[in-house]
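ugh ok fine here u go
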Amino acid sequence: MGNVQSESAAADSETVEPLRIRYRIRFSKTGLLRWISHRDLARLWERLLRRANFKLSMTQGFHPKPRIGFPSALALGVDGLEEVVELEFAEDLAPQNVLQRLQEDRQPGLSITSVSKVPEGFKKPQLEKSDYQITLPENADPVATQRAVEKLLGQPTVSVARKKKTLTVETAKQILSLQVNHDHLSLTLAASEAATLRPQDVLDLMDCGDWIENGSLITRNRVYLRQDVTGEESDMIALATETPTTHP
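structure:
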């Protein structure tokens, strides 16, 4: 009888689902880190988490991988000041604990802004829009740039080449804001399930496609999730924050 009970208890223990606790992290990626690819960024996060000795929730199958997800990939060469990554742990930790352990790694170019625990049943993050800043190169004429902005915004639709295809979109639905502010452009691009415009596309449409090679820098100041817009993100549990580092 005792052996039967032991075998039953062992069987029950084998069927217990491991913990899957989601955390949403906002972080910045600057300096030399802007030159790593999105895939390399995911690998960097995996190594960071292992160095910090977190118990990671893994995918099923022959090649289990940590559950690490980004709502939006950051293009190569672009700084990101308020990026988002979601992680799943096989342990329940206070957000402040997670924040401190991540910050102790001191990965150059990576700064952790906030950590929050995602309530069970909370939807996966979906990108709503992104704010960018594009510096004007030294040879750019602000007046001519303003004219190019007005001309672009005055077009009902615009088309760009994308992988040997032509992408045509409604200008007002994709470019939510585009302004010249002294030494930089302020740009807000909407996200959609279909193909969307990128900052370089906007520069090309303004006939400013050579800005990057002439010294212009692109920074994504913040990604806005659909939960930000609906107010759902305020329902996150026990938000732990760190004062962001000021970037030029």
